[in-house]
Design brief:
The protein is mainly beta. 9% of the residues lie in helices and 35% in strands. Among the domains are: 134 residues, Jelly Rolls; 148 residues, Galactose-binding domain-like (Jelly Rolls, Sandwich); 170 residues, Cation-dependent Mannose-6-phosphate Receptor, Chain A, CATH 2.70.130; 38 residues, no CATH class. The protein contains 6 helices and 74 strands. Strands 7, 9, 10, 12, 14 and 16 form a 6-stranded antiparallel β-sheet that branches. Strands 35, 37, 38, 40, 43 and 45 form a 6-stranded antiparallel β-sheet that branches. Strand 53 and strand 54 form a beta hairpin. The longest helix is centred in the last third of the chain and has 44 residues. The N terminus and C terminus are likely disordered.
């Protein structure tokens, strides 16, 4: 059995050998170029093996056998690489370099191996074409750097590296546009994001043209590096891209080869850890150990050039003019100088010669606060003195103190506290003399080395110092900077005004595109800080190494900074004097006090007025607050106390808006950009309260390094704290970012004007048609605000109207809304409208808002109920009285009383009827007797005689008619016998006595 098994195994081995032999027939033996060495993963004992990996599997046979490798902790020094055949560290040859345990990527002619660019598809939703619009978005190699996409698509640059030990990654970047989001994060091999602080994840903004370095520690194992950009593009503006270069990763165990020097650099000795740029007018190719000189007679090359360029004939673009410094005679002249380095040829056909110098002219006067004292240079006035620039310095009179600051309006030389420089994308710096140039009555942008250079002008202010009498007024205006400028452009130039507080990060305050006529701009400092103001001019943001638009220029005519702590004095201002009889020194005024010019004493502003900063010393410095507003105790600003009263006829409506809360929020949208990116606008509104209850908007992208506590207090560098502010919110889904992003926070209202039912206040108009009202029983209440900060799109600043409307169907917090035809809250970008519907906006309830209902009388008791008049348009205030129960007389009593009176009346009527009927019969009988008696001649009735009474004369009775008013009984009788009397009422009785009276 065993023999049989052995025989079968032998046959199988022979067959396998024959098959391998047949398969190897026709294939060559492997040479050194057919394979490369790699190490296996380290096992639990720290051992690894070196194995040969074929370049093309199956192309050759006879690969070297695996051998035991070096220790897993083994690494080479900088300038060395691990030669895998001998497994020993070997120096790099000249023309190459090595980091030892790291890799560096500094050449971006094409995307290096291992790097990939991935565009994240936008949300389709209602915009089905959004997914296709990002196919062309990518990080683009630009030679010395990478450039991100310039649209709003989210694009990631990805690189995976496996580290044998803990290491780091560092890179240089430019990130000038806060509308673009730029983050760097790391994932492990399970696609789980590593824990990173906000400061390590979100990149800080950089100055225009300046490179910043960012370093992050890496853990051993697989690290997937992500550089991700994305933005929200508003309007027609183009996003400024992110630039990335010199990516260096430390922590790899070894490098098996050296990196050749990129063109324009060289390494002249073996074992180099870096390559050196070639000097000016020399060049080098790929992997050079030395640089080759150019023929300077006809060619030139800048620092780090990969080739020489031909010198062209000189033109007007190759020189610039300067004003010489004042000489001993107080004269200056215009001179022309070639741009350095000079790259053009003189004296050849078509060359433009350097113009001759101009005539010597008197130097311009010194700037305010300086004097020349018959010397060629201007010097600052000593402390406590002032000058307007044309006269010697003088001492301020008693009761005044010198102003502090800077006022530049003459530009013979660059002031000592100002610096000029030039930055471009490819190099960290271009020649500083090509930044800004003085030109007598203005300073203007220089030529630069290329059209897309940033020409920088900077002034540093270490802090601000308020005038003595205002030094204790916290929260006042600490200072302001005002400058006058113009731009003249033929391309897409842009002029920036930026600031950097306490050397944190530079932010763009305002920018202007294209040609702008001469104008003035002012920025107010509301807190004391060390600040650098920067002006930057870029002729085009299209990458370029040419100089074609040198005639595109920016000019600054005047710059003034008030209250600069290291400033000079150009004049004097009034101050308050000590109350001591012998005191003549200026003293600070308490908050809310102005200087009375007649007494030079501090006087408090009247109630409900606010003190205007830097106003003249008189009562006019205290301005009254608007309607239904009051000032804080320091008279710094006005605010609403959430109470309002309105009288209509004889009725007074009282409103209490406290239930609405201190700050309301509204997020409208969603809205979509032209690319289909979804975003929202969030508005925070502080309706009532002073400085302690303001609304806060924060950019959580460029300011994530600020602590949460600081952000809540509004202390972040990119935090807005005001009455009304706006932020752009980008949802987390659909953009590839992992958090909801808040950016582009702006101020809509920093001044409260007042509350009124009218539609106009201080030039701001509320448009009732924006929010149609169905009921007019309770008027709308309008809150008016204004932002005094001017900008290019809104020269007069922004204004806001918040309309409060009583709606009992809403909660007390209510709902905020914007006009339907202006979903962003504004139709022109300058005036904003909001409607706040709430039951809390209804007036306070009074006794006029309810009525009484009387219940039925039951058991000699009656209920009195009180109910609200519908619809109920009030809140709080008077409450409904409780139900009352009162005694009452029941219906049975009144029914009995009525029945008794009815029966009595019936009996009375029957009795009277019988009585009158009987009486009538008797009268008929007597009357018939009388008629019968009257028919007998000369015979009078005996009983019913109408004879003259005894003792009466007939003469007295001849013409006398006696009438007696019938009694009530007689009237009743007459009524009862009315029908029968008609037959005998006019019967003429015959009598023998012609003058006898007839009674009827």
């Amino acid at each position: 059995m065993r023999a049989s098994a052995w025989f079968v195994a032998s046959c199988a081995l022979i067959l396998c050998t024959l098959r391998l032999t047949n398969a190897a027939k026709g294939r060559r033996q492997c040479g050194e170029k057919d394979y490369y060495y790699e190490y296996t993963e380290c096992d639990s004992t720290g051992t690894r093996w070196r194995v040969a990996i074929p370049q093309l599997p199956g192309d050759c046979v006879g690969l070297p056998e695996p051998v035991r490798g070096t220790e897993c902790t083994f690494s080479c020094k900088a300038g060395e690489f691990l030669e895998m055949s001998a497994q020993q560290c070997t120096q790099c040859a000249a023309g190459s370099y090595s980091l030892g345990s790291g890799v560096r990527f500094d050449q971006w002619d094409s995307m290096p191996a291992g790097f990939s660019s991935l565009a994240t598809s936008l949300e389709s939703g209602s915009r089905g074409d959004g997914r296709l619009s990002c196919n062309s978005s990518s990080w683009l190699p630009q030679g010395n750097y990478l450039m991100s996409n310039r649209d709003e698509c989210t694009v990631s640059l990805i690189y995976a590296v496996h580290l044998k030990k803990q290491g780091s990654v560092s890179f240089e970047y430019q990130y000038p546009d806060k509308n673009l989001l730029f983050e760097f994060f790391i994932q492990n091999d399970q696609c789980q994001e590593m824990d990173q602080s906000s400061e390590a994840k979100w990149l800080k903004l950089t100055n225009h043209g300046e490179w910043a370095t960012h370093t992050v520690n890496l853990k051993s194992g697989t690290n997937i590096l992500y550089w991700r950009t994305g933005g929200v593009l508003m309007g027609s503006k183009v996003l400024k891209p992110v630039f990335l270069k010199n990516i260096q990763i430390e922590g790899v165990a070894y490098t098996s080869e050296c990196f050749p020097c990129k063109p324009g650099t060289f390494s002249s000795v073996p074992g180099s850890s870096a390559c050196v740029p070639c000097p000016r007018d020399t060049y080098s190719g790929h992997g050079a150990s030395s640089c080759t000189p150019c023929d300077t007679a006809t060619q030139y090359a800048g620092d780090g050039s990969a080739m020489c360029k031909d010198r062209l004939p000189c033109s007007k673009k190759d020189y610039f003019q300067i004003h010489t410094a004042c000489d001993q005679e107080g004269k200056t002249q215009v001179m022309y100088k070639w741009l350095e380095p000079k790259i053009c040829l003189e004296g050849v056909s078509g060359a433009e010669p350097l113009p001759p110098s101009g005539d010597r002219e008197p130097c311009p006067p010194c700037n305010p606060g300086f004097y020349n004292n018959d010397t060629p240079t201007c010097s600052p006035c000593p402390a406590g003195s002032y000058s307007d620039g044309t006269k010697p310095c003088s001492q301020c009179p008693a009761g005044t103190e010198p102003t502090l600051g800077y006022e530049y309006k003459w530009w013979n030389v660059l002031p000592a506290n100002m610096k000029t420089s030039c930055f471009n994308v490819g190099n960290s710096k271009c020649d500083s003399m090509n930044g800004w140039e003085v030109a007598g009555d203005h300073i203007r942008s220089g030529a630069g080395s290329s059209d897309n250079d940033y020409l920088i002008l900077n002034i540093h202010i270490p802090g601000f110092k308020l005038p003595t009498s205002m030094s204790t007024q916290s929260g006042a205006e600490f200072g302001r900077i005002t400058f006058e400028f113009e731009t003249l452009c033929t391309a897409d130039c842009e002029f920036y005004f930026m600031m950097d507080e306490n050397r944190k990060s530079t932010t763009v305050v305002e920018s202007w595109e294209g040609t702008k006529t001469r104008r003035s701009y002012t920025h107010v400092m509301t807190k004391n800080a060390s600040v650098s103001y920067t002006w930057a001019f870029q002729r085009t943001n299209t990458p370029s190494d040419l100089r074609k638009r040198v005639n595109d220029v920016a000019r600054i005519y005047a710059i003034s900074v008030s209250n600069a702590v290291d400033g000079v004095s150009s004049g004097c201002q009034a101050c308050a004097l000590s109350s001591q009889p012998s005191g003549s020194a200026c003293v600070p005024c308490p908050d809310g006090h102005y200087i009375d010019s007649s007494t030079s004493k501090c006087t408090e502003c009247p109630p409900n007025t606010y003190l205007v900063s830097h106003a003249t010393p008189n009562p006019d410095a205290c301005k009254p607050c608007g309607p239904a507003s009051k000032s804080d105790k320091d008279h710094r600003s006005c605010y609403s106390d959430c109470h309002f009263t309105h009288t209509v006829g004889n009725a007074t409506l009282t409103f209490d808006f406290t239930p609405l809360g201190s700050v309301g929020s509204l997020m409208n949208g969603p809205s979509f950009t032209s690319k289909g990116t979804k975003y929202f606008h969030q508005f925070n509104i502080s309706l009532c309260g002073g400085q302690n209850q303001l609304a806060v908007c924060t950019d959580n992208v460029t300011d994530l390094s600020v602590a949460d506590s600081q952000r809540e207090r509004g202390e972040g560098a990119n935090t807005v704290k005001t009455f009304i502010c706006q932020s752009t919110i980008i949802p987390a889904n659909g953009r590839g970012f992992h958090v909801v992003l808040s950016s582009q926070s702006i101020t809509l209202a920093d001044t409260f004007l007042g509350v009124t039912v009218e539609n106009t206040l201080d030039g701001i108009e509320a448009v009732p048609e924006q929010f149609p009202q169905t009921s007019k029983k309770v008027p709308d209440i309008n809150f008016f605000y204004r932002s005094l900060e001017a900008m290019s799109s809104c020269p007069s600043g922004r204004s806001t109207v918040v309309t409060l409307r009583c709606n009992p169907e809403k909660s007390t917090r209510g709902d905020l809304s914007v006009p339907s035809r202006c979903p962003a809250g504004t139709c022109d970008g300058c005036t904003f409208y909001f409607l706040w519907e709430s039951s809390g906006a209804c007036p306070t309830c009074t006794v006029r808002d309810y009525h009484r209902i009387e219940g039925a009388c039951k058991g000699q008791q009656q209920d009195l109920l009180y109910v609200w008049t519908e619809p109920k348009l009030c809140i709080g205030g008077a409450s409904l009285p409780k139900k009352k129960t009162l005694p009452c007389e029941g219906m049975e009593f009144w029914v009995q009383l009525g029945a008794g009176l009815g029966a009595f009346t019936a009996v009375l009527l029957v009795s009277l009827t019988c009585y009158f009927w009987k009486k009538n019969k008797r009268l008929e009988y007597k009357y018939s007797r009388l008629v019968m008696s009257a028919n007998k001649e000369c015979e009078m009735p005996g009983t019913d005689s109408c004879a003259v009474m005894e003792g009466e004369n007939e003469g007295d009775m001849e013409d006398e008619v006696v009438y007696t008013k019938p009694s009530l009984l007689g009237k009743l009788k007459a009524i009862a016998s009315k029908g029968k009397r008609e037959s005998f009422e006019h019967v003429q009785l015959s009598s023998s006595h012609p003058k006898a009276l007839v009674w009827s």
